[in-house]
Specification:
Belongs to the SURF4 family. One of its GO terms (cellular component) is endoplasmic reticulum-Golgi intermediate compartment. This is Surfeit locus protein 4. With 268 residues, this protein is mainly alpha-helical. The protein contains 12 helices and no strands. Helix 2 runs antiparallel to helix 11 and helix 10 packs antiparallel against helix 11. The radius of gyration is 19 Å and the shape is globular.
Length: 268
């Protein structure tokens, strides 16, 4: 059996999986996507003093502003998660979570750490896909404001979400001179390009979901590290952020690549 036959079998299996899970997949995608915000919001409550002291020391902004920062992160993330999961005011919730991502990127100096910046951008890609899904009915985000849910804009939002999502996988490429790393990098690069171009998108995205889930369980096993060690929190943060990107990929599978993709052009 040639490569085309193998790909055909894989596509048939993916389509069968999607038919069976089509009523559940969007809900699972939403839960995974907001998981990092949910975890971080809860973390803000239990580590309020540590977070406040870090911001106050790093920015010399005083206790009042540092407490306000923690409060905004706690309420903004938990409220955004509740709204997304309940499917109420989803566009506003997405914009609020975008603001939280931008705020944390600046406050925690992620802007200067390429790896964490790319992961935050990948997380933003998932939010962008969620925002595009919420505009599928073409309704306005705010009363009295013209709708931004036009098909053209929605397609470009899906394109932007795809391109941002693949940044997560670029942080996983090793470029090391051994057989396993070379194979992993080659396969990963091919899958990244397929998603970015929107070619055989659902199959490529499902494959990335599987790959990323395995790596996440292996690399970010925070439960195996005692809670008092700093590594525990670091791995926990990484685990849930990666889980959120997985949710973005599942949402991509559920929504499709959009009109600005090679898959869409094949239908013309």
């Amino acid at each position: 059996m040639g490569p085309d036959g193998i790909v055909g079998i894989a596509e048939d299996a993916a389509e069968k999986f999607l038919r069976v899970t089509k009523h559940y997949l969007p809900h699972v995608a939403h839960l995974c996507l907001v998981s990092t915000f949910l975890e971080d919001g809860i973390r803000m409550w239990f580590q309020w003093k540590d977070q406040r002291d870090y911001i106050e020391t790093s920015w010399q902004c005083g206790a009042a502003l540092a407490n306000l920062f923690v409060l905004i992160n706690l309420l903004g993330q938990l409220a955004g998660c509740i709204l997304v999961l309940s499917r109420r005011f989803v566009p506003q919730a997405c914009i609020g979570l975008f603001v939280i991502v931008a705020l944390q990127t600046v406050a925690y100096s992620i802007l200067w750490d390429v790896k964490f910046l790319m992961r935050n951008l990948a997380l933003s890609g998932g939010l962008l896909l969620l925002l595009s899904e919420s505009h599928s009915d073409g309704r306005s985000m705010f009363a009295g404001v013209p709708s931004v849910g036009t098909p053209g804009l929605r397609q470009y939002m899906q394109l932007g979400g795809r391109l941002l999502l693949v940044l997560m996988f670029m942080t996983l490429l090793h470029f090391e001179a051994n057989a396993i790393s070379l194979v992993q990098d080659l396969v990963g690069t091919v899958l990244i390009l397929l998603v970015a171009l929107g070619y055989k998108t659902k199959l490529a995205a499902l494959t990335l979901v599987f790959w990323l889930s395995v790596l996440n369980l292996y690399l970010n096993a925070f439960w195996a590290v005692p809670a008092y060690k700093p590594l525990h929190d670091f791995l926990k943060y990484d685990f849930f952020q990666t889980l959120s990107v997985t949710g973005g990929l599942l949402l991509l599978v559920a929504l499709g690549p959009g009109g600005v993709s090679m898959d869409a052009k094949k239908k013309w």
